[in-house]
Structures are given as structure tokens and as C-alpha cells.
Amino acid sequence: AETGGRAGVMAEEAIFDFIHMEAVSYAFQGGEKMSEDEAISKLEHMGFATGYRLVERLTRESGRYKDELDIMKYICKDLWVTVYKKQIDNLRTNHQGVYVLHDNRFRFLSRMAAGKQYLQYAPRYLAFTCGLVRGCLANLGVTCVVTAEVTQLPACKFQIQVQRG
Amino acid sequence: MAVAGNYYFAIVGHHDNPVFEMEFTPANKEPKKEDHRHLNQFIAHAALDLVDESMWTTSNMYLRLVDKFNEWYVSAFVTAGRIRLICLHDVKNDDGIKSFFMEMYETYIKHSMNPFYTPNSPIKSAAFEKKAHFYGRKYLTG
């Protein structure tokens, strides 16, 4: 649904929000048969497959990156703008393979009450994105683990741990 | 007028595996002997090391000429997703090869968007082969 940023086209954003919400409901409908971890893992895998294919298409315009930091900046700027219509607000790194991406108003959390009311449900809405980032990086040649942390909606942090060696 | 030449085109996946291969010969020549096929694969595979080396020196996708073996030149094109498109040719045809690579890149992107296609697996689509034939005729052999 995210076919680049055509100004004024709002319909595709709503569709993406709704499909994501429904995907989360669907993953969790297993009830007692499926644990929370399995459902989150399903969503993460969906994100991974999506990100892996998506990045091949999106990089057609932006070209190749030689540096790991350039790749991370691409994720924070171009990818986030294409998928979530905004940039990552803050990128931190320890220059040893750990990157933390701060999003102060994450799109999928912005429709819920701000604060701590829905904190326990927040991880469900971050799983797909963790997978998306992991998939994009995997196809760009960076093997990593992506986790997310929320302390107060709608802000969240994505942590990327690059696997070396 | 492009000089008529022979071309061998291959798309190489992340594990140095061929994902797609196709040969192009000029329309007026009769088909070549079979043993050239193995030699082409050998030359392309040997060139992968040089492709990997030169892809770090530039952020262009089109790497131009990376290797030469006897009378065969090897040109390469690398995408951001590190899919390598290799073309063996015995005549210089920079513009034609670049256009061919760009078109095959587009075709590959469309094919990789198919949810039933596993990345890095062999491409067995008749539509893809048709496109490759078409662009080969248009930009390579004429």
C-alpha cells in the first residue's frame, strides 16, 4: 500500500493502519492455543519478509550504501518517511554495532491514549516494525537483532544490535 | 550500429548461486557449440571476486568492466540488495549493456515483489524469460 509519498493522497495511509491493526488482531486470535510470544514472532516474521522485499524496491532510487552508518541513516530517514510518513526523531549509536532509534510519535501507537494506559499491549504493535527493520537490513547485508521498548505512548525506541563475525 | 556480439547474462544471488542465466547470440549467426556454456559459467563465477572488490569502491550500481578473460569482457551491475547482474560479452557495448542491466533490474524488482518467489531461489518464470529475450534483442544483439 505504501507506493511512495504522493502529496495529498491520504487513503493509502489509512488502509495501511487498518491492515496492520487487523494483522495484530489476527495474530493474537489463537487464544489459549497460542502464546503471546508465538503471535509476536509471527508478526515479526511478516515484517521481516516485507522488509526484505521492500528494500529491493525502494533502493532503486536511493542507490547503494557502503557504510553501516549510512545504511542506518537510510533507515531513519528514507525508509521511515516512506512507510510512516515521518523521520526518526533521534539516532544514537555506541559505534560498536548498537543503534537506538527514537520515534517520539510512532504511527501505530499514535491512535491510542498517550501515557501508560496501554503499555502492556504496545509490544504487539511494534513487532511488525521490528521485523520490517530487520528484513531491510538483512537484504542490505547487515545481520542484526531488532527489539523495541516503550515507556510512554506514543514514543518508543527501536534498538538494533548488529551481529558481527 | 552495435557490432554483433555474443552475450552471456547471469543474475547471481547472495550465496554465489545462479538465479537466472541466458545467452544471446546475433540473429544472423548459427547457434554456437554447447561447450561454451560451461566456460561462461566458469568465467562469470571467477569474476565474482572482482565484482565484490569493486562494489565497495563506488556507490554506483553499474560497475562497468570488472574483468577480462581471453576474448571475453565481464561487466557487472550490483543492486542495493547485493544482487549481482553479470554480463559476459565479446564486443564493447557499454551503453547497450547499461540499458540492458537497468531494464533487467526493473524486471527483477517486479519479480521479487511476488510473494510466492523466495529470494535467492532460481527464477523460473516464462514472463521473466520473455522480458529478458526482448531486452536482449533490443539492447544487446539488435
UniProtKB/TrEMBL annotation, chain A:
Q: Name one GO cellular component term.
A: endoplasmic reticulum
Does Endoplasmic reticulum appear among the keywords?
Answer: yes
In which compartments does the protein localize?
Answer: Endoplasmic reticulum; Golgi apparatus, cis-Golgi network
The entry's keywords:
Endoplasmic reticulum, Golgi apparatus, Neurogenesis
Checking InterPro entries in the record gives: NO_sig/Golgi_transp_ligand-bd, TRAPP_component, TRAPPC6/Trs33
**Lineage: superkingdom:** Eukaryota
- Any one Gene Ontology BP term: endoplasmic reticulum to Golgi vesicle-mediated transport
Query: Does Methyltransferase count among this protein's keywords?
Result: no
Main localization of the protein?
endoplasmic reticulum
Q: Which family does it belong to?
A: Belongs to the TRAPP small subunits family. BET3 subfamily.
Please give the PANTHER family that the UniProt record associates with this protein.
GEO08327P1, TRAFFICKING PROTEIN PARTICLE COMPLEX SUBUNIT 6B
Outline what the protein does: Component of a transport protein particle (TRAPP) complex that may function in specific stages of inter-organelle traffic. Specifically involved in the early development of neural circuitry, likely by controlling the frequency and amplitude of intracellular calcium transients implicated in the regulation of neuron differentiation and survival.
- Under which name does UniProt file this protein? Trafficking protein particle complex subunit 6B
UniProtKB/TrEMBL annotation, chain B:
InterPro entries linked: Longin-like_dom_sf, Sedlin
Please state where this protein is localized. Answer: Cytoplasm, Perinuclear region
GO biological process terms on file: endoplasmic reticulum to Golgi vesicle-mediated transport
Pull one GO CC term from this UniProt entry: perinuclear region of cytoplasm
Name any one Pfam family assigned in the record: Sedlin_N
Where along the sequence do coiled-coil regions lie? none
Keyword set for this entry? Cytoplasm, ER-Golgi transport, Transport
Q: Which family does it belong to?
A: Belongs to the TRAPP small subunits family. Sedlin subfamily.
* Protein name per Swiss-Prot or TrEMBL: Trafficking protein particle complex subunit 2
Species name for this entry? Cherax quadricarinatus
